[in-house]
Design goal:
This protein is an all-alpha fold. Helix content is 69%, strand content 0%. The chain has seven helices and no strands. Helix 1 packs antiparallel against helix 5, helix 1 packs parallel to helix 6 and helix 4 crosses helix 5. The radius of gyration is 16 Å and the shape is elongated. 27% of the residues are buried.
């Protein structure tokens, strides 16, 4: 019973953390998308309109489908930039829900948002880094 209370407490803190990072990704969309390595990836996706498979960037395969869904539905450039900016956080949110559902250890699923907060200087403006 007590472990369920802690698990819900950790769930609440983790969701607040991930949603705060999503909100920051929306606020700093220009800095994240237009001035970094993500700009090359976004322009490449806008031109090709199909998934790209780079052997060096394994972490970029799944999050690019959020951006491509916005491109395929003919959204505005601002919407595509926002989707590209939050795509990595949405991917981590999905991973978090999978870890929350299948983790027997209470703290194990909490490591995803903890990693995002502790590594924010490395992964916020360059989210598809190899770190």
């Amino acid at each position: 019973m007590i472990q369920n209370i802690y698990k819900r407490y950790y769930l609440f803190i983790a969701l607040i953390t991930i949603f705060a990072l999503i909100a920051l990704a929306i606020v700093f969309v220009r800095e994240r998308v237009a001035i970094s390595d993500m700009a090359y990836m976004l322009v490449f996706q806008l031109i090709e309109k199909k998934p790209s498979w780079w052997f060096v960037r394994i972490g970029a395969v799944i999050p690019q489908f959020f951006t491509l869904s916005a491109i395929w539905t003919h959204c505005s450039l601002r919407t595509v930039m926002i989707m590209h900016s939050i795509s990595t956080q949405l991917f981590y949110l999905i991973l978090f829900f999978i870890a929350y559902r299948y983790s027997r250890a209470t703290i194990l699923f909490f490591l995803i948002p903890l990693n995002l907060v502790l590594m924010v200087n490395e992964v916020f403006f360059w989210p598809i880094s190899e770190v």
